[in-house]
Design brief:
The structure is a single chain. The chain has 277 residues and is mostly helical. The protein has a domain at 89-264: Biosynthetic peptidoglycan transglycosylase-like (Penicillin binding protein transpeptidase fold, Orthogonal Bundle), CATH 1.10.3810.10. It is built from eleven helices and three strands. The protein has helices spanning 10-14, 56-78, 87-96, 111-121, 133-142, 151-160, 167-183, 186-196, 206-214, 223-231, 246-264, and strands at 100-101, 198-200, 203-204. The protein has a three-stranded mixed sheet, covered by helices on one side. A hairpin with a 2-residue loop joins β2 (198-200) and β3 (203-204). α6 (151-160) packs across α8 (186-196). InterPro entries: Glyco_trans_51, Lysozyme-like_dom_sf, PBP_transglycosylase, Pep_trsgly.
Length: 277
């Protein structure tokens, strides 16, 4: 029979578990572990796509379309609203310190003045659509541009374009003239022409011209006075209708004959009433 020893073996002493019957004074209470903050995820920006490139042709087309809309709108507007001025009047106003011009409707202009202007500048005014192709062809054969420019073309040049004889301006003028003819009546075209045409240095429009040269209103012009005013239109700065030369008198007589002719054969019917004297 084995003897029991009074000592506990080391293994047995290790196996002794203290009882939890009483408080443990030396126990250390640790605070609860805080969760680690999560690192924000790095967002990789998406590669931005470059804006679509606009081709030069597209930009040019848009610019031309905008210009066309502007031009058409202006032409349509001046078909009902009197142009306040013209580029040439502005230029002459800066050079001279002002110009003389007063707008009057066609009804307040002597009918013979309208006929005289058409006879002098564009006898086929009522028969063409803005461009007189026969006159252009004849002028080309003669090597001169005189007589090829219709009243409608002169209105386009005076109201919308610049002065000069460049091919660029002539091309724009030729393109814009039929457009104006489509929007305006012949009476309106002639009315604008007689109100913006130059009749002397700083003198624009037939109302200012009648007062400047003869001391009367446009409605009071006589046949001779109207013919002389029409006679100076090709070179108004160097011709004097109040003191005409022999050549100017002869031209005025020819204009009077032409005015009577277009009144008799119906070539004044598009702008003048049949009852007009």
């Amino acid at each position: 029979m084995a003897r029991s020893s009074g000592r506990k073996t080391e293994r047995e002493s290790r196996a002794v578990v203290p009882q939890d019957d009483g408080p443990i004074e030396d126990a250390v209470i640790l605070p609860p572990r805080e969760p680690r903050p999560r690192r924000p995820r790095k967002t990789i920006p998406l590669e931005e796509s470059p804006p679509p490139r606009r081709s030069p042709r597209g930009l040019l087309a848009r610019g031309m379309l905008g210009l066309l809309v502007l031009v058409l709108g202006t032409v349509a507007l001046f078909g009902a609203v009197d142009p306040p001025t013209t580029p040439y009047m502005l230029s002459e106003g800066r050079r001279l310190g002002g110009v003389d011009q007063a707008w009057v409707p066609l009804e307040d202009i002597a009918p013979v003045m309208a006929r005289a202007a058409v006879a002098a500048e564009d006898a086929e005014f009522c028969n063409h659509w803005g461009l007189d192709l026969d006159a252009i062809r004849q002028a080309a054969e003669e090597g001169s541009a005189r007589g090829a420019s219709t009243i409608s073309q002169q209105v386009v040049k005076n109201v919308f374009l610049w002065q000069g004889r460049s091919w660029t301006r002539k091309a724009v003028e030729a393109a814009l003239t039929p457009v104006m003819e489509a929007f305006w009546s012949k009476r309106r075209i002639l009315e604008v022409y007689l109100n913006v045409a130059e009749f002397g240095e700083g003198v624009f429009g037939v109302e200012a011209a009648a007062h400047h040269w003869f001391g009367v209103r446009a409605s009071e012009l006589t046949e001779v006075q109207a013919a002389r005013l029409a006679a100076i239109l090709p070179d108004p700065k160097h011709r004097d209708p109040a003191d005409p030369t022999d050549s100017l008198r002869a031209r005025a007589r020819g204009i009077l004959d032409g005015a009577a002719t277009i009144a008799a054969d119906g070539r004044a019917s598009c702008f003048q009433r049949p009852s007009a004297p």
